[in-house]
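Hi V.,

Quick status before I head out on leave. The structure for the redesign project is tokenized and pasted below; the design run finished overnight.
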């Protein structure tokens, strides 16, 4: 955990609009550079199991269309409410749902509360991990920065106000 990072208030965002990643599977080349950048930024190692974004595709399909799994930064964020240790909160500048590694016990209640089961267990630690939009990076999300099709395959968009989680 970066000690210079602002201390967020659990469940409270001080930003006006919550941002999230958007993915276009038709534009994606399935190079998975986003996964490598993510895991390298967060963990110092290149590994899809450590990445907070995961791209999947059928390499044998006639036409490859990629899909991606990452946190949608829901406005109502059921994972925040479900966390029994208050380890999840909103970053005060980005609005991203973040996990405090010091408070998380890896119980994965957050994943069960998430309609898409996005938070996943860190393979080497008792800790939940998910996309936090690289909130501690001034440059923003590493995946967006490294994507050869940034602006097409990966973009940022505002979470529509009042969007409810299914």
């Amino acid at each position: 955990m970066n000690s210079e990072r602002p201390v967020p208030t659990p469940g409270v965002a001080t930003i006006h609009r919550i941002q999230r990643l958007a993915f276009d599977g038709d534009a994606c080349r399935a190079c998975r550079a986003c996964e490598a950048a993510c895991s390298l930024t967060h963990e110092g190692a290149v590994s899809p199991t450590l990445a907070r974004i995961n791209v999947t595709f059928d390499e044998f399909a006639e036409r490859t269309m990629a899909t991606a799994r990452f946190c949608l930064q829901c406005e109502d964020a059921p994972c925040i409410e479900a966390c029994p240790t208050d380890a999840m909160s909103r970053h005060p500048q980005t609005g991203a749902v973040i996990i405090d590694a010091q408070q998380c016990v890896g119980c994965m209640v957050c994943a069960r509360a998430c309609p898409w089961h996005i938070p996943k267990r860190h393979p080497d630690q008792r800790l939940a991990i998910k996309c936090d939009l690289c909130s501690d990076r001034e440059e923003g999300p590493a995946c967006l920065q490294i994507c050869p099709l940034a602006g097409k395959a990966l973009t940022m968009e505002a979470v529509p106000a009042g969007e409810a989680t299914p």
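Above is the designed sequence. The CA atoms of residues 13 and 41 lie 24 Å apart.

G. will cover questions while I'm gone.

Best,
W.
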